[in-house]
Amino acid sequence: MNTRMRQLKILRITLLVLLVLITIVVLILTRKTKNEKQIIWFDQFTWPVTEYPISSDEENQGLIPVQSGDLYGFLNHNGELTIPLTYYGAKPFSDGLAPVATTLSAKASDWGFINPSNEMVIAAVYAEAGMFSDGLAKVATYTTDNRLVYGYIDSTGTMVITPEYDQAGDFSDGLAMVAKKDDTGALKYGYINTTGEFVVPIQYDAAADFAEGFAKIGKKNYENEMRYAFVDTTGNIITPFDYVGAGDFSEGMAAVATQWGKDPAMWGFIDTTGELVILPSWTRVTSFSEGMAVIIYTDQYGNWYHALIDKTGKKVLTFEHDTQINEFEHGFARSGILRGDVKFGVINTLGDLVIPHEYNNVRIYKHNLVVTAEKRTKYGLLTTTNETVLPAKYHHIEPVDNLVFVRKNEKTGVFIYNTQN
Predict the structure, then answer these.
(1) E-strand spans in 186-292?
(2) For the chain, which end, N or C, has fewer CB atoms within 10 Å of the first or last residue's CB respectively?
(3) Average pLDDT, the chain
(4) pTM here?
(5) Domain limits for position 111
(6) How many other β-carbons are positioned within 10 Å of the β-carbon of residue 239?
């Protein structure tokens, strides 16, 4: 009898210990950090519009477009919905105005511009509307034969450049890319200034927006193969049409690719005079950032390597053949170990691993923030000093300026991050 009593006593103690341990585990798993307690949860699913850059200029009052179902509105930097969810499309503010759509119809002329007080200051009469740059915004209207054509308005709503183009870009460096179809229906590209005058005539088969005073243009050769060159803001073409690939200028350098016969294309860099200052020697490259560019090359055994070069083409950091490095953003770069169970971390410009290779993915944002992904449903937020801002328990995280949007199941909310941290 005494033996049975002792066994029951041990069993009760064991069960009590298990209950305490389970309680502790549950408390740990459900415990909310200080930052989590500050999340403002929305009454309905709400998520930021991230396809366009957000301007923090004072005249734009830091307003961020958000979407809930078919409806759009704007949050301020305190996470407050200062412009209600009443529009059917919205883009960020620029020059104190934001494009919004007033109906759901795909082919309606319903885009106009509001100010931060939610007043419609440019009537909603356009089929499409873009953000302001260099004082002008791209808008589209329908012709009598139902063809969509583009022009530009100023911030008063005055049509400065009449809609006549089949394609158009935003102004950059005082010029905008525009295109018209030729007799065969193919688009031909050129560039206009803010008065609508052509600086580069419509004659090219490809074109990109200006960056740092230069734009990539393309022309097909007699074999119908695209070849690229660069043009400056005066219309002067600074390189021959020799390149099979080209990137935008960044930090005074642009990546270009050459190819001979059936050999693979190899990449190098030109400077702002058009001179080839780093010979095409690499299989792939990124743009320069923080004074360095990532290069990818292979050894004689076919092993892939990543390295960082400076503007003289000198390798300043090399990595093992199974280490991947991405372009630097905000002073940091994603780094991955490409063997076995692939994992990612973050390095600084010295090559130091500031966030270890422990994650399925990482994304780098301004304000020294890094979103980590452990699994599809386990997103967290770190600083670049590897300090936890939000634990890895969310289905998605999206920082937008000082607001950090979070999703957990079908609930969404926003955490206001102190950018002075």
Answers:
(1) 187-193, 198-204, 206-207, 214-220, 226-232, 245-246, 254-258, 266-270, 276-282, 284-285
(2) N
(3) 90
(4) 0.87
(5) 44-165
(6) 21
